[in-house]
Structure formats: C-alpha cells, structure tokens
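> @MW can you paste both from yesterday?
MW: sure, first one:
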Amino acid sequence: MHFLENFSPQLVVASPGRINLIGEHTDYNMGYVLPTAIEKKITFQLQKNESDTHCRIYSKGYDTGFELDLRHIAISKIEWENYILGVLHEILKRTDGLRGFDCIVESNLPSGSGLSSSAALECGLVFGLNELFDLGLPKMEMVKLSQTAEHTFVGTQCGIMDQYASVMSEAGHVILLDCRSLERRMIPVSLDPFKLILLNTKVSHNLATSEYNVRRRECEEGVAIIQRDFPKIRSLRDVTEKMLTECRDKMGEVVFKRCSFIVAENQRVLEAAEALGQNDLDHMGRLLYKAHEGISKLYEVSCAESDFLVDFTKENPLVLGARQTGGGFGGCTLNIVHRDGVDSFIKSASEAYAKAFDISLEAFEVTPSQGTTIVRKG
C-alpha cells in the first residue's frame, strides 16, 4: 500500500490481550469473571489523511491491507477485516467526528490462542481513533461498542469480559467483574514465588466460533426451562444447584451439564477472588483443576491437546493448578508454577507434547498488566 512509504504516525496505541484466571463462559450468562490484561499486545500506528471518508488499513502480520470508504461500510468475506469494519460502523452510529485515516497494525499476540486478540484489535482501534479525532467516547462506551461490533460484523455472540479487560485492566491486579451490573473490584495479585505460565497448544479447532454460539443457546434454553418453576430467574447467575436438580428431568442431559458447569463456575470465581485476596495459591490451584474438569466434561469445550497438558501437570509437585483458558477447543493452558520449576516444567511438557501430538509447544510467562494505552503521541 503506497501510503506506507511516507507514513508518519501521529499516534501509537497498544492494546493488550488478556487471560481469565477463572470464570469461563460465565460472562454471557451474567455471572462473574476474573480477567486481567497481559504484556502481549496489538500496536496501532495512526495518522489522519487528507480525506473525509477514505481509510487505509495495513496488517504487518498478514502482510496485507485494505481500503474503505466510511460512507459505505459492509461485512467483508475476509474475517479479520470485519473486526475493523464493525468497530468503524459502531463509531459512526455514535459520532460524526470520524474522518479519513491510515493505520498500521502489528501484533505479538498469537492468533487463535484464546488470549483475545479479537478484543485487542477492536478496543485498540476505537481507543486510538477516539484520541486521534477527539471523539469524546468514554471508556465504557468503547468497551460496549467493541462487543457489539463482534456480535454484528463477526457473528460471535461474546460476553463483555474480553473487551472490558482489554480496556480497563490495571498492572498488578486482576478484575473481579460482575458481568450483570458491570461493577468491578480490583484485586492486587502477589504470586511470588509462583509464576503464571501459558502453554500454547498451537491448535485452534474450527468448532470454536460455531460451538460458542451453540453453548450460549443451550444456556438460554436451560434458563427458559428453569423459569417455568422459578419465574424470577433472569440468567444462570441467579440459579442455585438445588433449582438445577429440581429441573433436571425437564431439561435433558446436555442442557443440564451446561447449566451445571456455569452455576459451579460462578461460585469458583468468587472463591478464587477470596483465595487471591488471602494469597492462598494452593486453593487457587485446586480451583483451576476443578474448572478444567468442568470445561472438559460438562461444558465440553476442551480438546485432546488441552486435556493432555492439564493432566500432565498433575504429576508435578511444583505446579499448583492448570486449566484451558479462553473460549475453548484449543488455545492456551494456564499454569501456576513455582519459579524453581518453570524451566524444567516447560522442557518436560514440551517433550511430552511433541511426542504425543508432533506439535512444538510454545510457552511464555504472563503478568497482570495495564489495559489499552497511548504509547506515543505526536
């Protein structure tokens, strides 16, 4: 793209990926989650151009770009473009201040790793354009706008956690987020002498997006059945194990398993927040193992590769807990590992994984980090 030759960004913005310590698939069920941003991020270089409506986007990772007219935005056949287009569509519904711009996007977030590169892409773009054109959008509006963009242009009916964590996170903290009220509590995290190690399975099964929407529908079906006996129930957030048991025969085995996982997972999030507040990492580790068992057996969004890596940790006394993180069907496992055992753990896990699946494992440490920020202006 010829604009790259004379590109001189007026603004550089960095938008991070995120991990969710615990609380998988609870966000769209109006429950609790415990996410934080991480150091891996997507960087946006932005400049205004001479046009009122012409925009040019280039991705270094894909080594390709596209051009668009703000007056004629439509869904693209190329998936990654829709994250951009959806955000622009939502911005234009809220303000008439957006004008033509050029943007270079660069990521060190592994795509398909369950670290929410999609939310980082959405939130970083709206954050940058809000600053570049002084649009006056509050942070919470940017979060909601990005979520809506993913619903409408990408087709993933995601909850609000990923976008919220990408924008709102604070370094050294995790967020206990109530996805119904959007009230949050920042919990300082002190993991020493343990570290958070992610193992990237390097697999991203094609089921992820379609099955994500299926799980959401199954949960909604469960709520509708429970409401017949308990009319005040609005989401699985309100459901107790006793209610579930009473309604079990009416909902079928699959829907019952889905609802059981969400009800138990919500409770685990609250327990985990308490454990972190008391620096009880042993209990936190046990909760991760319980969460993964539910992810695998009840919600059925794990895969052979993730199950293998989680099971592998159980033989290692220097690992407190592990689970698959992210939407499911691959991506990364999250592991709490004693600093003295990190190198040997990564080495042994990599060897075992290569032997079992003939895939080279990717491992990296993450720490709770700052949300979307301006790196440079002017």
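MW: second:
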Amino acid sequence: MGAIAIITARGGSKRIPNKNKKNFLGKPIMCYSIEAALASELFEEVMVSTDDEEIAQIARGAGASVPFMRSEATANDFATTDDVLTEVLSEYEKRGRTFEYMACIYPTAPFVTAEKLQNAFRILQEQEAWSVMPVVQFSFPPQRCVVVNEEGELQMKWPEYAQTRSQDLEPYFHDCGQFYLCRVKQFMEYGTTDLPHMLPIITSELEVQDIDTMNDWEIAELKYKKMTGMP
C-alpha cells in the first residue's frame, strides 16, 4: 500500500503538435515530470499513461513504467484526467496492485521538482488532508474585471468593487496545472481529484506557466531558466 505517480501523456495535441514529446531546453518536456517523480523517492511506481508508442518509448528511456497503453475511451478529446486516473488505478488493481496515495503529474510541468512533491506529501500526511494541489494567485483581482456588453462597450462586471482598493479585495487562486496528490481511497469514492479536505500549496508566478501556445512555451523556458539558474 504505497504510492504511485501517474503522468498523463496523451499523443494528440491540437494547439502545439506533439507537445508532450517536444524538446524543452534539451530534452522532451515530459521527462521533467518523470525525473522529478523518480528523484522524490516517494513512489513505488512511476508510470506514464499514453496511447502513443513513441511517448511510451521516451517514458521508458527516462525510467518510467508503461505497463499498458491507454484505452480508446480515455484517449479521445472528451476524456477527463479523472477518467484516465480511474482507468489506471483500476487496471493496476486487476493486476493485484493497489496504492494508498496517488500523484497525478502533468507531462508539460517542468516546474515540478522532487522537493515540491515531497513537500506536498508531508502536507497530505501531517495535516491529514485528502488532496493537495499547487495554486497561484491571480495577478490582477478578478473582481475588477471588465466585460464587453451587447452594445460592444466595456463595462465593469462587478461595479460595486470599482472604488475598492486592490489590497482590500479577497485574493483568488487558480490551479497551477502541475500535479495533484491524493489519497486513493477518497479519489475512487468521489471520482475526482477535487476532493473535500483539499489543501493548497501557494506557488510563485515565476514557477507557473500554462503551455497552450508557442508564446507560452517560450515564456515557460525563460521562467525555467530563472528558476534553475540555467544560462
């Protein structure tokens, strides 16, 4: 009853072709997630869930396990991450292996480190949480946002906040898109990583970047260089 790291690396990518195996500062981007999971020494199993044989070969070369390929049902555009995780855990159970803890690590998350995973695991255990997730604060207060109305004009979405100082507004956060650490029993019961008793790891904007476009990719490389001191 140990822990498993599941890296979800589907072959298809519409906005950045071959995104999960694309070179990021010298190696396929998914290798960063694999290496962080292995270096943390938290997991009995570090596996990649994929439908792509080339991704499977890269994963095995980086030290991960690919004991089975993803099914058609979880390889399409409509399958959720929770669907993939449920399939992986169920398949391992069929093979006689169960786990107490699970980390879902995204394949395009070079900012994940062994230390961050270890810290998340400490929080999960010491505070008896069911789930832990890195989050980052919105850099601009969402309460001060504007929308385009039916006449094509700008107006405040919430005008009651127009004169409120930014520092007096409640801070809002969003998912970093890096990893989730969960207790497997509760995940399987609720069918989601968004569990009750979920705790945050508040993360610096310098170590967070959604990667959906090539501009995002270039920004992520700049941030990664800053984080690691890479020239």
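> thanks! The chain has a mean pLDDT of 96.
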